């Protein structure tokens, strides 16, 4: 079985939304005292190559035994 993925340039709106979601997630909950201020994503680059995917028939079996 094989897959072909197109990895286009993501839209500015996608980048904006992704940054907002990451900022929210990274600042959720209590932070260790060494982090004095909020964490902020200032740049997000998705790259130009599709990520390598790995599949397995027995993925996560240790969680379901």
Automatic annotation (TrEMBL):
Under the heading InterPro entries, the entry gives: MDM34, MDM34_N, SMP_LBD
Pfam families documented for this protein: Mdm34_N (PF26545)
The primary location reported for this protein is: membrane
In terms of superkingdom, the source organism counts as: Eukaryota
- Record keyword Iron-sulfur present: no
Q: Which GO terms describe its biological process?
A: mitochondrion organization; mitochondrion-endoplasmic reticulum membrane tethering; phospholipid transport
Q: Which UniProt keywords apply?
A: Lipid transport, Lipid-binding, Membrane, Mitochondrion, Mitochondrion outer membrane, Transmembrane, Transmembrane beta strand, Transport
The answer to whether keyword Lipid biosynthesis applies is no
- Any idea where the SMP-LTD domain is? 1-65
Q: Where does the record place it?
A: Membrane
What cellular component terms from Gene Ontology apply here? ERMES complex
GO MF, any single term: lipid binding
PANTHER family to which the protein is assigned, alphabetical: MITOCHONDRIAL DISTRIBUTION AND MORPHOLOGY PROTEIN 34
Protein's recorded name: SMP-LTD domain-containing protein
């Amino acid at each position: 079985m094989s897959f072909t993925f197109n990895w286009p340039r993501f839209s500015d709106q996608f980048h904006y939304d992704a940054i907002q979601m990451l900022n929210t997630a990274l600042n959720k909950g209590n932070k260790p005292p060494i982090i004095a201020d909020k964490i902020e994503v200032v740049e997000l680059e998705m790259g130009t190559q599709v990520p390598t995917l790995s599949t397995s028939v027995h993925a996560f079996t240790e969680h379901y035994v």
